[in-house]
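A student in our group prepared the protein record below, which I am reviewing. What it holds is a sequence and that sequence's fold in token form. My question to you is simply how this chain folds and whether the tokens agree. Do not assume that whoever made the record got everything right. I have pasted the whole thing underneath without changing anything:
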Amino acid sequence: MTIQSSPPIQNSSDVNELLPQTVSPIVALGWLHTAKFLTTAPQLHFLPPLEVPEIAFVGRSNAGKSTCINTLTQQKQLAFASKKPGRTQHINLFSLGKQGVTDAVLADLPGYGYAAVPKQDKIRWQQVMANYLVTRENLKAIVLMCDPRHGLTELDEVLLDVVRPRVEEGLKFLVVLTKADKLTRAEQSKALSIMKLQAGGGEVRLFSATKRQGIEEVATLLWQWAHPATPTKPAAVSPEITIE
């Protein structure tokens, strides 16, 4: 009598699967609160080469980008909101990480589309931003601010076209509908549905600094994107035993 054991049967292929990490909103917000100014750059070549994940915040001037960053990091003046929208023309980096160890970076890109900015400055910064979004190697996610009362502008659409190839390759993308408190619940629901269709597979969240809406959701999402999942091997099914 011989006992034979068949090879273990995997629940799926032998390729390791990635399971998303989970974290509580308290931990995510605590992590964002560690944000500190790192550097500012008027051009791409002034940006330091980094290996940690970078998350870029972009959006039209007056879309509430600075307010969103300051609310998420629980710091009133981390991101500077100019009294003259569109005048801030630097890429500002903020380091994130507890105990002095940087594990991610937030990038605050200049607001775009403000009418008072000279045309040649608009064109120059549109090119700088496009180059950044296409070439920044450690860029892992993009957060686009959008005022849901106005929807996506032509420049927002251009930005979406620029980043679409990278999003298709795995770059994370989130549209934050700021100033959601200005809308009724019905209007919020409608704006959310429309933007999900326009976001091209990206995430969409309603956000209000005034009503504290969406803060925990966005913070948790950013933490997950900055802390890649760890590979786990598929569970094996017990081997089949036969007797001859």
Q: What stands out?
A: Helices lie at 25-32, 65-73, 119-135, 154-168, 185-198, 215-226. Confidence is low (pLDDT under 50) at residues 1-17, 235-244.
